[in-house]
């Protein structure tokens, strides 16, 4: 944990309850609520995550040092070095913090609107949002806290991580948008075409093959299905 009630935002009065960082250089925004339904904590956390997503190691070290001055003054002077040691696996003082930010929502309960939103964001957009439910109990003079992970379910967490990694790799391979917008140039004996999107490139290829004398039946063998359909016709009049 590098900050409590973090609020280094220009023209923004709200504060992040807890700001943390993991050993992979990923910031973690922790939003706490005492309500039974969670309020609108997922929306707040998304805003906070976007705001801190551009933090550098230097900014994080300064934030951590200010935090230690309040809670452990004797350790404040070693804040930068301790943070660098913690992030040694990703470069230490040269670590580049990830743009992606993990979100941890902690509350006494969660409204179905929150859980539905979180599941949708995790599944469709590959976000890393965890919901933790805290239930306090008093036994004589002791206060006990029951901590339960609600989303993702503990037994499904490893699977969710693998799915997010696979989807991220797929998005990276296609330029991030899911569709392949790579321009293609068709080379023919008469010259090269302009850069074309995939569908236009296939159409240009078919035209070039036809002009080169390749029959429709031969092309149909390598362009199956609805992309190449045969229709009845009549011979062209010379």
- Output the structural class: alpha/beta
Mean pLDDT, all residues: 83
In the CATH hierarchy, the architecture of the largest domain is 3-Layer(aba) Sandwich
**Strand line-up across the major sheet:** 1-2-3-4-5-6
Q: Tell me, what's the shape?
A: elongated
Beta-strand segment tally: 8
Give me the CATH fold name of the largest domain: Trna Endonuclease, Chain: A, domain 1
First and last CA, distance: 82 Å
Main β sheet profile: 6 strands, mixed
Helix and strand string, N-terminal first? EEEHHHEHEEHEEHH
Please give the CATH class of the largest domain.
Answer: Alpha Beta
Describe this structure in a few short sentences.
This protein has 2 domains: 3-55 and 97-173, Trna Endonuclease, Chain: A, domain 1, CATH 3.40.1350.10; 187-227, no CATH class.
Q: What features would you describe in this structure?
A:
Helix content is 37%, strand content 20%. By secondary structure, the protein is of the alpha/beta class. It has two domains: 3-55 and 97-173, Trna Endonuclease, Chain: A, domain 1; 187-227, no CATH class. The strands form two sheets. A six-stranded mixed β-sheet has the order 1-2-3-4-5-6.
Defining traits:
238 residues, alpha/beta, Trna Endonuclease, Chain: A, domain 1, 2 domains, six-stranded mixed beta sheet, two-stranded antiparallel ribbon, 7 helices, 37% helix, elongated
Topology (elements, then pairings):
Blueprint: E1 3-6, E2 16-21, E3 27-32, H1 41-52, H2 57-71, H3 79-86, E4 101-107, H4 112-125, E5 129-139, E6 142-151, H5 157-173, E7 187-188, E8 191-192, H6 198-211, H7 216-222
Parallel strand pairs: 3-4, 4-5
Antiparallel strand pairs: 1-2, 2-3, 5-6, 7-8
């Amino acid at each position: 944990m590098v900050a409590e009630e973090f609020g280094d935002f220009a023209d923004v009065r709200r504060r992040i309850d807890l700001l943390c960082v993991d050993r992979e250089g990923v910031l973690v925004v922790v939003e706490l609520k005492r309500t039974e339904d969670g309020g609108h904590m997922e929306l707040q956390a998304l805003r906070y995550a976007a705001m801190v997503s551009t933090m550098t190691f230097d900014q994080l070290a300064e934030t951590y040092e200010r935090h230690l001055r309040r809670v452990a003054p004797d350790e404040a002077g070693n804040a930068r070095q301790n943070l660098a040691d913690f992030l040694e696996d990703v470069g230490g003082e040269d670590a580049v913090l990830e743009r992606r930010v993990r979100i941890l929502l902690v509350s006494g309960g969660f409204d179905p609107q929150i859980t539905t939103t979180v599941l949708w964001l995790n599944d469709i957009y590959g976000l890393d949002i965890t919901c933790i439910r805290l239930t306090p109990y008093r036994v004589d003079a002791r206060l006990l806290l029951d901590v339960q992970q609600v989303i993702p379910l503990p037994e499904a967490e490893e699977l969710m991580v693998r799915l997010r990694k696979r989807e991220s790799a797929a998005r990276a391979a296609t330029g991030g948008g899911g569709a392949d917008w790579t321009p293609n140039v068709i080379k023919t004996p008469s010259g090269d075409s302009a850069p074309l999107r995939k569908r236009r490139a296939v159409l240009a290829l078919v035209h070039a093959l036809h002009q080169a004398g390749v029959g429709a039946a031969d092309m149909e063998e390598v362009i199956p299905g609805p992309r190449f359909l045969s229709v009845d016709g009549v011979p062209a009049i010379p």
